[in-house]
Design brief:
This protein has 12 helices and 6 strands. The chain is mainly alpha-helical. The strands form 2 sheets. Strands 2-1-3 form a 3-stranded parallel beta sheet, with no helix packed on it. It has a 3-stranded parallel beta sheet with strand order 4-5-6, with helices on both faces. Strand 4 (108-113), helix 6 and strand 5 form a beta-alpha-beta unit. Helix 2 (45-58) packs across helix 3. The protein is globular and about 55 Å long. Heterodimers with GPN1 or GPN3. Binds to RNA polymerase II (RNAPII). Small GTPase required for proper localization of RNA polymerase II and III (RNAPII and RNAPIII). May act at an RNAP assembly step prior to nuclear import.
Amino acid sequence: IEKCNREVLIVNLDPANENTGYKADIDVMDLIKLEDVMDTHELGPNGALVYCMEHLEVNFNWLSERLKGTDDKYILFDMPGQVELYTHHNCVRNILQELLKLKYNLCVVHLVDSHYCSEPHKFIATLLMALTTMMQIGLPAVNVFSKGDELKKFESKLDFNINFYTDVLNLNYLLDRLNENEFTKKYRKLNEDIISIVEDFGLVSFLILDWNNLATVVQLKNLVDKANGYVYGSGEERSL
């Protein structure tokens, strides 16, 4: 993104993200830390993470104050990975709604390990999770299979070609595979209903991201730009 002549601001909103591999310009761990919450309130990691995000929601002014004067920046928010925060709980959605009130154009980039393509029951769970997250958060979204280089290693063992997983093609073929397994066959009706819901909404598709392949990085950037309505500035590169 910086190579496109954009000024980037990185905001870490994961209170458990101690080893980020980058220097955050704004860090929620300056407000609250997961380990402190676990020690003080005797909570497990999942409960403590929910507590932290609820604390951020209540203290949103802490974040909004630090975002002042950043209107000319392209902001990346690094969020926690706990899926329940996006599928069942309202705190993350409420935080994002507050950001919308500040006139930020947001796009959710949902990263999923490409290994979840490897087995039918994992993929159907991924589809349901992606759709549920999109409906719960209610923002433009781009779903991404990360670790695209790893995907190439087991591509030959996949039941279908890559396009089946990225474009979410006729899922009845997936149902056939699920019915071949004695365990997943027991849940035929549930699987049928999940597939029906995913196909009826027609919202879920995936992009493959391989950090070693610049073309996939550019493709992701362009999709996000389109989703959040990004307006190119003068002298700004549209491709890397």
